[in-house]
Amino acid sequence: MTQEISIQTADFSLADEVTLLEKDNAIDGAVVTFTGRVRNNNEGKEVTSLTLEHYPGMTEKSLAKIITEAKERWCIGRVKVIHRVGELFLGDQIVFVGVTSKHRQDAFAANEFIMDYLKVQAPFWKKEASKEGVNWLEAKTSDENKAAKW
Amino acid sequence: MINVVFFAALREQLDCSELLINDDNLKTVADLKTHLANKNDQWQHVFANSALLTAVNHDMVNNDHSIKSGDEVAFFPPVTGG
C-alpha cells in the first residue's frame, strides 16, 4: 500500500492520485477528491504568494490521527492526504484529500471531515504576501465551527 | 533537559526557533511558560497570548500537562493550513 500522508514541496497530479486510489480497488465504487489552491484574494487583499511552514513530525502524527478517526466513523477504503509546504503562487495546488468507499456518502463525509480537522489541528501556518506586505494569516473562527460540527 | 521549539509568527516574534531548558523545578507546561515569559518584555508579551497552542512530543496539550526531561515542547499560534 502506498503512503497515506505526504508533506512535500513538489506539486502533485490529481490524475496520478486518482489512479493510485483506484488501482486494484474494484471493491470501492466511490472516489471523492478535494484539491485546495492558492487564490488571488483573501479578505480584500490581492494575494501574490503564500509560504507554508509546518512542524515536521507532529504534522504527520496529527494527520494520521485524523485519518484513523475518519476510518472509525465511516466505512471507507483508501485515503490519501498531500499537503505542500514552502513558497506557493496563485493557482498552485496546496492540499489534496482523496477518499474511496463502497458507497458515496461515506467518502463525501470522510473527505470533508479530514479537511475540516486538518484546518484546525494539523500544524501548518500560512504566511501571505500581498501588495500590502507580508503577514501571517490569522486562524478563523468559522474553521473552528466547521470542525466542531462533526 | 527539555527541548523547546517555536513556529511561525511566534518564532519570528521571539527571534528563536529552538531552546534547551535544564530546570527540574518546571513540572508543567504552565511552569515552563512562566519561566520563558520571565526572560524579558517581548517574551512576556508573547506568552501572555491566550490563543498560543502547546504540543508535547507532537501531541496538543493543555497548560496543566506535566513535562519531564527528554520532552520536546512546542509553542505555536493557531494553525492555518489547508
Summarize the structure.
Chain A is built from 4 helices and 9 strands, in the order βαβββαβββαββα. With 150 residues, chain A is an alpha+beta fold. The mean pLDDT of chain A is 96.
> Class by helix and strand content of chain B?
alpha+beta
Spatial extent as radius of gyration of chain A: 16 Å
Give the helix proportion of chain B (percent range).
Answer: 25-40%
Greatest interface (CB-CB under 8 A), with counts per chain: A-B, 27 and 18 residues
CATH homologous superfamily assignment of chain B? Beta-grasp domain
Q: Uncertain segments of chain B of ≥5 residues (pLDDT<50)?
A: none
User: Strand-and-helix sequence of chain B, N→C?
Assistant: EHEHHEEE
If you had to describe this structure to a student in words, what would you say it looks like?
The complex is a heterodimer of chains A (150) and B (82). Chain A is α+β, with helices and mostly antiparallel strands and 150 residues long. Chain A is built from four helices and nine strands. Chain B is an alpha+beta fold. Chain B has a single domain, classed as Ubiquitin-like (UB roll). In chain B, 28% of the residues lie in helices and 26% in strands. Chain B has helices at residues 8-14, 29-37, 41-47; strands at residues 2-6, 18-21, 53-56, 59-61, 72-76. The model of chain B has no long low-confidence stretch (mean pLDDT 96).
